[in-house]
Protein 1
Amino acid sequence: MHVLRTIGALTGREILKFVRDRSRVLGAVAQPLALWVLLGLGFQGTFRPPAGMDVEGGYVAFLFPGILALVLLFTAIFSTISVVDERTSGFLQAVMVAPTSRTALVLGNALGGTVLATGQALLFLLALPLLGVRPTLEGMALVAGICVLTGIGFTALGFAIAWRMDTTRGFHAVMNLVLLPLWFLSGAMFPVEGAAPMLRALVWANPVSYAVSGLRHGLYTGTEAALAGPVVCLLVTTAFAALMLALAVWQVRQPFFRT
Amino acid sequence: MADPAVDIQGVTHQYGEHTALRDVSLRVEAGRLYGLLGPNGSGKTTLFRILSTLMPPTDGTARVFGTDTTLDPVAVRQALGVVFQEAALDGALTVRENLRFQGALYRLRGAALQDRIDELLARFDVADRADDPVEELSGGLRRRVDLARGLLHRPRLLLLDEPTTGLDPAARRSFWRALRRLQEAEGTTLLMATHLMDEAERCDRVGILSEGALVADGSPSALKGELGEETLWLDADEPRALRDRIEAQFGVSTRLVGARVQVAPPDPPAFLASLYEAFGEYIQSATIRTPTLEDVFMVHAGTSPEAPRGRVLARGGQTDESS
């Protein structure tokens, strides 16, 4: 019971913070939106799927699941940036000296970031009618599931990294090093079948690829541009989320100050 | 006999090669206000981290009301409130939202939590700002809200790590009034780290930390008493040389305290006259007064704490600028 209240309080705080900071709300939506419009319309005429593959709706539609994934990654990861400062000087120290579980701290933060990330991603789904896409109910359930799991995975990853960082600048540096390559190599921008063999191997090894493919399945039932079947996508995304949660919990259970 | 609020025995702590605490033993009886005095880097914060269960000591034991901080940290956390150097509040949340959040961490809920929040807001005179975001509050108000946060669950022991840093004198006065009221009303034991002499002066008992070792421990008056009654304090360019000359010529007991010479003759005013006759040119200034905590600190720690200057020339002992 107490664990649930702690989680609830932490989740509520994340949401309140986000809603009160209008620039964050705008920033998390504007960047992926701009990327989608610019890249999508830019390549719409020249994009050619690999032989034998049918991609309905052209590049704008092909890119869309990747943009959803980008919204998820950015919102989830950057919801944890405040952890860097709050751990070294204040707010989270108060949580650490309270008689509450360390796991609840991780779960509360992860859940907060996940709600934000999923909310933003679902907001993007309002663009679906523009694409002429009518997803099925099962498809939407799959999209929601992938959103939540990806949100948890990346908030937990962000938390684990932020917990070890002394400055937000360092956090930004690490994130740029990790986040964008993960996205570029996820099959979000190009069909993996058409890529060079070495690149293809990287895409296969990248957990984000399975989130993007899962979203593709959900939005375009029977798509041919996915890396694996929907079940495999769900399983890999779940495993990634569980692994990242475990990493974050392990991290937060270490002595608070290095000795 | 009840367990002491804090019982630290033989605690040593190392960060890699660096030894932050050396065999520190210290007791704080329940209900007291104990001041831990020391310059930055003397080990105060390390001791607080150990007491607040944020890390185990390399060696030795720390107990809070009889419970070992390493063996049962959750029980210690329940008994403990902590006010950190920087307020542990979320600036984007209102005062009340921050306190509600804190309540959730300590299993407080419903009307009981509501009443406790109202009670603390009233006690610390911040009730009218309850629904303002914390980032809009002044430093002094924020400190008081943070104190309310640390006290929400009625901890039996409150740790305060230099809580008045950055406060103006008026804000510091009202913070201290709040502490006193707390000690009287709820019998809370207070352990405060500070490097300010006038704050240490108000504590029931003071411990002096220097380079990780506890070099003195006692009530302010007892510690000052060890340095004698009214004595003569001399400022000189070359205090060591001056002391040697005085000892050679007059045979009185002297002590080198930082850059000062303390001389304890039977009749200080009369002695001062003959001293000026003999060594007037070596003496920059002379004062007759009772020892201050700063003197105590200098004797035990060998260096000056970061104390405000300018009051040491007052005759007859400690003046207290900010009370």
Protein 2
Amino acid sequence: MSISLQLYLLFAKISLFTFGGGYAMIPLFQNELVTVNGFLTDAEFANMVALAQMTPGPVGLNAATYVGFNQAGIIGAAAGTLGLMTPSFILAVLAAIFVKVFKDNPTMQAVLSGVRPAVLGLIAAAVIFFADTSVFSAPLRNMWTAGASFGICWPGLLIFAITIAMELSGKIHMLWTLLVAGALGALLLA
Amino acid sequence: MTTPLTDHHQRIWTLFRVFFGISAVALGGGLAMLPIMKREFVDKRHWLSNDDMIDTVAVMQSLPGIISINMAALIGYRVAGLAGASAAAIAVALPPFITIIVIAAAVQGLLQSPTMGRIFHGVRSAICALILLSAIKLAKQILVSRFAVILAVIGFVVMVFLPINAIWIIVLSALAGYIYQTISRFRQQATPGSAS
């Protein structure tokens, strides 16, 4: 199977199982791109999400373009993007045609009553994944692995705390917060 | 409606322009796009009613996939049929496609530099905080029952500790939600005296 077709099918699959958009996609992307296919390392994946967050457009589309481009150039980027778009597009057009079937459908609402909290759990897991490559100096799982050491990266933790303070102030655009975090990283991190 | 063909073309072109603009400017995408769409399609051009927008949001929240593509296809279809849906979806995808290719081509070399590595480490720390904040905000809306709390905890624990693909967590939680709601409905029917 050509790499472009593989990318198309991979992103179509991720798209089909993504509920909630944005951060909810991170665990699915990480599973498929890092763990299953080995397209990226953990650190590369985290950088890719960081990059996607700093540029305009939906995080998922940014990620598909980035990974597709890295794997197979512009054709790969197009394949990844189209793959991600296909299920969304088809289902949304069907929903627009059969609005009454989709709207307040009890089966769909029952299914979502289970999916929504599980996705929240996945987003919380994404916090740990990101902490592993930023706030912690070694992955959290080292805590229960015999002989492995775990530690805190103090400058990372400081940037984490400053970001929370900036966001809770509610007055600062997220792009500024990320720029400050990047600048602090360049100054404080070794 | 004197020249329907021109009107149709104009609608498609407007969809493309509006969605391209939103996608190129809005960071993060998703539901943040809604107010702009209401202004452009409901208030300014009257191509959609307020009820159309409410329907769209209701339907969108039960669809999987990229929220902004779902929204573009739903609204595009309402405004100008399949051509409108396609124009809107392509318009949403183009800005990130172009931006990321330009950046990816430039960044690959840059990321090797130690300074860039430190900058990205700082940004990763910030994103960790942003995801935590958004998880807390979501938790307030979602964790309204014991069932929801249990599923969220299971999702978290399984994802962090076990080598299980996230897709399985989604599939099994969907099944759990369906079974749980079916059982509660049966229970309500079995005890008509209880408040429904």
